[in-house]
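Re: beginner question about structure tokens

> Can someone show what the tokenized structure looks like for a real chain? I only ever see the sequence side.

Sure, here's an example I had lying around. Input first:
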Amino acid sequence: MTARMLAEALEAPAAVGRFLAADKDGWADFGARLREADPPAGVTVGRGSSDHAASYLAYLLTARLGRPVASLPMSLVTLCHAPLRVCGLAAFAVSQSGQSPDVVACLDALRAAGALTAAFVNDTSAPLAAAAEWCFELHAGAERSVAATKSFIASLAAAARLVGVWQDDSGFLARLRGLPNHLERAGRADWASAVPALAAASRAIVVSRGLGFAIAAEAALKLKEICGLHAEAFSGAELRHGPIALVGPAEPVLVLAPNGPALGELVQLADELRAWGGTVLLAAPEEVRGRDLTLIATGDPDLDPLAAVQSFYPFAAALAEARGRDPDQPAHLSKVTRTL
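And the corresponding structure tokens:
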């Protein structure tokens, strides 16, 4: 079986290339607007994979610009009708379809309350596009598999581009433009050796930290939805505050350790988990001894998480098939999810 999900995931380098080549004037104007408004903090709005992309944006914005960013619990708006006091803040919505009523309603409410609003969508005719003051197309192209792949990676690229234009950082933006070549290499990374460790498992843990945590959350979601494997994501630090008691031979741990400040700690954690009898799969850059899987370096640690998830998606499709699952038809799910 050749999964549509796999084919679409491998289209991500071209999709990111299209995205980075498009809307240059609009993005430049958006960066100027952000610098002029100078929001001291922000909120994000998204569900599922889109919320994971928003989490990457939140980490990146806080790390590079010092602006605290939090994910808005949408039920506070749609069910509790909380009186939002967000004048002067920035609000960013991420959605592949742009059609979920709760995401649209939240961005409407944030804009009405005085926040500077922007949306990143794969379909600019969707309702979310109209709700935002600024809207940018992801240019990922049609995505027919239920599981978001290339649109997710394009959303991560949008997050990085947002930070780059806000900072007016030409060096970072230049490295971002080189990302498609690194994604091509990442898509060819061979993670087949990890399939047997998870093929018969009933539970798994995915661990990363910092900018990599959004990728761990995305990986855990994909393991659940397309592989039928109950997986939870933890930061390397949070794992030590209780969940580490779960680690054992029957609970495989995938440790995603891209370049960056958390690399050394995550490698050490993988070593400790192995010493305690855990089944550990360490994904790390090629210079890391003892790695099980190779992560491709992009030349900028802030962009390495994008290459990590590009390598993960083909692995997830292969794992789903090894577990007798159709990656394109996960149970009880459809491409567009509408929640209130």
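Each token stands for a local structural state, so reading them left to right follows the chain. Residues 4-177 form a domain with the Rossmann fold fold (CATH 3.40.50.10490).
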